[in-house]
UniProtKB/TrEMBL annotation:
A single cellular component GO annotation: membrane
GO molecular function annotations of the record: metal ion binding
Coiled-coil positions: none
Major localisation: membrane
Keywords annotated in UniProt: Heme, Iron, Membrane, Metal-binding, Transmembrane, Transmembrane helix
Nucleotide-binding is among the record's keywords: no
Transmembrane parts of this sequence: 33-56, 76-96, 116-135
Cell compartment(s), UniProt: Membrane
Disordered, as annotated region: 1-20
This protein's name: Succinate dehydrogenase / fumarate reductase membrane anchor subunit
Amino acid sequence: MTATIESPRSGRVAPQYRRSGGSKGNFEMIAWLFMRLSGVVLVVLIFGHLFVNLMVGEGIHAIDFGFVAGKWADPFWQFWDLAMLWLAMLHGSNGVRTIINDYAEKTSTRRWLKTVLYAAAVVIILLGTLVIFTFNPCPVVNGVALPGGFCPA
């Protein structure tokens, strides 16, 4: 007795939903290479971030508004966190794009899902970048400096 196992998706995709065999050029190879390289860089960035935040000084008990304010006062840490944000969002978006390409059968569904994905990634990258570079730990509202404590007089 022999069992025949059909190849995945064989016969499951209706003819009107089958993809064309058009070439995408080098984009998929570049995306694959980006995933590997950004993954290596992200490991370094994330472990550096965790080491500084959790091991140096008082550890997790020292992380508060003042800790972040002091860290982001240094341009080095601003760019470190910016690189981590950008690489993580681009790396994750590329991974989700691959999943959408693998599992969304209809071309219109793939197009809409990727549009939503790209829009969300752009919004998060822009807002995160804005927060990192415009963060002011000592805002002045109606002539009153807020929040006090660690802000210079």
